[in-house]
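Dissemination and training. As part of the outreach component of the grant, students in the summer workshop were shown how a complex can be specified as a set of sequence lines and then modelled as a single object. The example used during the hands-on session is reproduced here so that future cohorts can follow it. Participants entered these lines:
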Amino acid sequence: MPTNILTIWVEDYTTDLYKWALHKVSSKELAQDLVQETFLSAAEKTATFKGKSSPKTWLFSILNHKIIDYYRRKVYQTVSFEDQTFSNFFNHNGSWQEQRKPSDWHIEDESNLLDNPEFQQVLKNCLDALPQKWSTSIKLKYLMEKNGEEICQELGLTPSNFWQIVHRAKVQLRDCVEKNWHD
Amino acid sequence: MITKIMQILFLSCSKATSIIEKQFHFRLSFIEKLQLSAHKSMCKACTNYEKQSRVLEQTIQQQLKEHDVEVNVTKLKEEIIIKLTNK
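and obtained this result:
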């Protein structure tokens, strides 16, 4: 297939593909990379495009594969990470280390925090401070808009593996928020 | 010894918080629910943890929904076309 047809598709579909990718991965740089890769793959695989579906549907299916691949890589990297930081939080009996114990935030209704811009900013900073693969694991449920079982199925993880990853990331995140959040 | 028995009956904090996270994604078994509520009834720190972790969960969900999709794709289109031409 000549490049000029692809050029027309780039013109027509980049915006929609990019918006979708951004919605799914919540990172601009990453979404741009994924859309680029989508068109590069499309250029290589044009022979498989028979025109049975619309070009748009075809491009979206390539993009969706790339997104799932990305999640899969992220989560598998997370599985292999070192246990060390976790022992900062719990001692060998599994009890909280004294200085890491979740303290009372002294808020009558925690859901009020949802509308608090300062709290939101602290959370954002703490998410950014986490290694990216960890923050991805926490966001996965909302990004993929799927439940735990479906996520595990799609990424080829066991449920216990999956929630242990989330557990570690979340313990770290909560601690960061507590240390940086002043009422 | 007592700590060991307590841990089996009432879970350690490490295990309790992992079940707290599990419940956001999966259904807990009857035993897990029982163990968790027994643990929380004795552990202020994990009770705090659960409340706070749930708020974090809700806030993250909210932030991702509000994600700004206002985008300028002109530059992206140019980059893609350059890459396609250079292939």
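Chain B touches chain A through 45 residues (CB under 8 Å). Students were then asked to discuss how this feature might be tested experimentally.
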